[in-house]
Amino acid sequence: SELVGRVQQTVLDAQMHQDAPFELLVKRLQPDRDIRRTPLVQVMFTVQNLPATKLELGDLSLSPVSIEPGAAKFDLSVAVAESAGQFTAAFEYDGGLFDENTIERMARRYKTLLEQAVSKPDLTIGEIDLLDDQERRLLLEWSGSETEYPADRALQHAFKEQVALRPGDTAVVCGDEAITYAALDFKSNQLANYLIARGVEPESIVALVFGRSLESVISMLAIVKAGAAYLPIDMNYPKQRIDYMIADAGAKVVLTESSLANRFEAGGAKVLCLDLVWADIARCSDYEPAVPVSGENLAYVIYTSGSTGAPKGVAIPHRGVNRLLFNTNYIDLDASCRMAHASSISFDIATFEVWGALLFGGRLIIAPPEVALSPRQFAAFLRENEITTMLLATPLFNQLAAEDPSAFRSFKTLLFGGEAADPKSVRRVLADAGRPERLLNAYGPTEVTMMSTWLPIENLPEDSVSVPIGSPISNTRVYLLDDGLRLAPMGLAGEMYIGGDGLARGYLNKPGLTAEKFVPDPLAASPGARLYRTGDLARLLPDGVIDFIGRVDNQIKIRGFRIELGEIESVLARHAAVREAIVLAVDDDAGNRRLAAYILTNADESSAVVTELRALVKERLPEHMAPSSYVTLDGFPLTPNGKVNRQALLSLNPLRFESYADYVAPRTPLEQMLAEVWAEVLNVERVGVEDNFFDLGGHSLLVTRVVSRIRGVFNVELPVRRLFETPTVAELAQAIAEAQTEAGGVSDAISSRLSSDQAERLLENLDELSEEEVAELFGRLSAEEQVGSN
Predict the structure, then answer these.
(1) 52 Cβ contact partners less than 8 Å away, ≥ 6 residues apart
(2) In this structure, what are the phi and psi dihedrals at residue 47, rounded to the nearest 5 degrees?
(3) Exposure string for 613-622, b = 16+ CB within 10 A, e = fewer
């Protein structure tokens, strides 16, 4: 009622000036001219409220006839007219922007809005529900479906069934090691009994500090058999982060190996190095412990980035994993499955990899540490092991699709997910002659046991700019809700809320945060049902498929990892010289997303502060959360309402990083060419020979691009680990020179791969070389090659 009054007054005020010439209006407003839209307004609303009159000319009667205009004058026009006590609304629209079904839905919603506004004039605008009964029934139907599955069964019980069916079949392969289902059952039983003897009880938490290994798989099984929950921790995490997770989770025991024990302090937890205690474990009973465990018991805890400055543990019961894998609509797993285990054990994709193989009698094949960092080696690994099923983080899928889309030819089912997919990568894989039998885009937060929706992709039109995330998997409910927790109409953005049996218990030891994110289900028929509030925006397409739009908060995803920017800002703010810090995600020219930190500092020497901040971040945060660049400012740009203008910060082009270390120019042709490779891959203006690849914004995925470019430019094959071991241009150039010498000479490698531009740059640098360096460079060239080079 208040809005109607305001509109009435606005219209009456405007009608006082209705005789103003149109030319004057244009002159005063001076609108930007754009051929894609009408300059002044794009939407027109008209009420024809003049009484209808009948025109008589003698014996001739005239009546109005509606004429189709042929072309829309605006993006959308709505004309309302009253006749014989009824109102009629006519919609005229640009067919290039809207289709008929969209306009029909809009018309129905307009009618619903008017009916509610008239019947309940005291409603606020936000309380008006635009859905009619027909659309509401359709949205509820699309929200999910239910199937029968073993919800109450513990994971080890399903595994035991496979042991009975195929005791001699290979369960896990790790390099040259392999273990059968019977042996895996035997060893995990012994370790489970060993853990129980050391105080591990039902619902207690046991931390795992491992890389991908046979030991980590045995440990996961043993822990759930003991009735406890496992906490997987990446062995490459900084010490302080590992220490925090162990302490925050209240882990009673930490399983690791002796070579990793110095990477953390367990506090009050017992540290068991499996390689040192296997003899003791082998003396334990090989019978499965008689510990009652059901689907409601805790299976594992995975820590994700936290907006308050510390990571938070997500507590997942056995039921959630069962709902992910058994009798579901997106995949049918069986004993023929050859599953690759290529993710970190602390990444929830490992849930699908490990249990998706072992609970169905399949074979879990563990990728060596370096394989996932090299697309060529990864593709070879997939082919050699005849992998049939895998879930890839989207960035790794994009990289493999770009370098070798034929890598997936043995696949029955290839899933990818973790962040928005690149349509070009999807099309490359679909275009390959040996494409996977099934290609699926998966979506789901850790809080709902990793996966909530899926989309089977058989083709993707060339004009597609995004890849939808599909429909709910079985026993999962997905709603798009508005701010009032009402269903968002089809085509309109709403926040994703997810419910069903995949829902986590909540955040470990954080009841307040759990209550904030796990909210009562307003649409549930039974009391007590909850929904997880994802913070993701999406919309429903006309066929019921969900299209991802973006985030509603300060959370982002980089290389498949979920990151709360507030956690990074909190770490930076701990430095005494930092007054305030803001971290933003920036897309570089190549489409790679990186982190940029903007710092207000009290220090005179900002370069020293940045150096110390890099060390602080390295000490406290994982590599994927380290900013690529730092910009020090005297003050943040503000919007007119006094908030930080983040768009203005992005315009500072933070990725054009200039090293705070003393710049040392390349001294040899090899260093010059390598510095140019780094500059291209890292998207920076210059690279000095003492600059550190990772300090310039490099990360594990970019390492593979550098190694690929080195192979193309210098004709040598360096292992991926070499760049981690020699992260400066000077060190890596030395490694390349040594590899070239072993492969038959520096000059042969360089001369065989030089482009004309590179050769010209090389020759320009010859004047700076000593006679000995020139002799070394060209000494092995034949006379014909020397003539060609000259």
Answers:
(1) 64, 83
(2) -115, 115
(3) bbeebeebbb
What percent of the chain is predicted at pLDDT more than 90?
45
How is residue 207 written in tokens? 């931390």
Of 190, 180, 182, the closest CA to residue 163 belongs to 182
- Give the separation between CA 338 and CA 269, rounded to whole angstroms: 36
pLDDT tens digit string along 563-573?
A: 877 778 878 87
Q: Which amino acid is at 358?
A: L
How much is the average pLDDT of 124-128? 86
* Helix then strand then coil, % of the chain, to nearest 5: 40, 20, 40
* Dihedrals phi, psi of 320, to nearest 5 degrees: -65, -40
How far apart, in Å, are the Cα atoms of 578 and each of 603, 605, 622? Answer: 8, 12, 21
Look up residue 22 and give its two tokens: 């149109």
With 90 as the cut, is the pLDDT of residue 466 above it? no
Scan for tokens 């690759």, then name that residue: 340
Residue that has been written with the tokens 């026009």 in this structure: 77
Report pTM. 0.73
Residue type for position 18 = Q
| Model pLDDT for residues 662-695, shown as the tens digit of each residue | 667 788 888 888 888 877 777 676 787 777 777 7
Q: Which of 10-19, 232-241, 337-346, 724-733 has the lowest mean pLDDT?
A: 724-733
The residue among 392, 395, 501, 398 whose CA lies nearest residue 440 is 392
Among candidate residues 413, 417, 416, 405, the one with its CA nearest the CA of residue 387: 413
Whether 457 contacts 471, CB under 8 Å = no
Buried b (16+ CB within 10 A) or exposed e, 189-204: bbbbbbbbeeebeeeb
Buried b / exposed e along 545-569 (16+ C-beta atoms within 10 A): ebbbbeeeebbbbbbbbbbbbbbbb
Report the C-alpha gap between 75 and 98 in whole angstroms: 9
Confidence of residue 29 (pLDDT cuts 50, 70, 90): confident
Q: Which residues pair with 413 in a beta bridge?
A: 389, 438
Q: Which residues 6+ apart lie within 8 Å of 195 measured at CB? A: 206, 222, 223, 226, 228, 253
Write the DSSP symbol of residue 32.
P
Span of 286-295, 325-334, 730-739 with lowest mean pLDDT: 730-739
- Distances in whole angstroms, Cα of residue 706 to Cα of each of 695, 701, 752: 15, 9, 19
Element (H, E) at 324: helix 318-325
Between CA 237 and CA 518 the distance in angstroms is 28
d(CA 686, CA 593): 20
Go through 652-669 and write b for each residue having 16 or more CB atoms within 10 A of its CB, e for each that does not.
eebbebebbeeeeebbbb
Residue 133 pLDDT level (bands cut at 50, 70, 90):
confident
Measuring CA to CA, which residue among 160, 274, 264 is closest to residue 219?
274
The rounded distance, in Å, linking the Cα atoms of 735 and 743 is 12
CA 542, distance to chain mean position in Å, is 25
Judge residue 132's burial from the number of C-beta atoms within 10 Å of its C-beta, 0-12 exposed, 13-18 middle, 19 or more buried: middle
Residues 6 or more apart from 505 whose CB is under 8 A from it?
Answer: 298, 315, 316, 317, 514
Which spans in 72-180 are helix H? 100-119, 133-142, 155-165
Supply the pLDDT for residue 65. Answer: 79
Whether 779 shows a pLDDT value over 70: the answer reads no
Q: Rounded CA gap, 142 and 449, in Å? A: 21
Helix (H) or strand (E) holding 196: helix 181-197
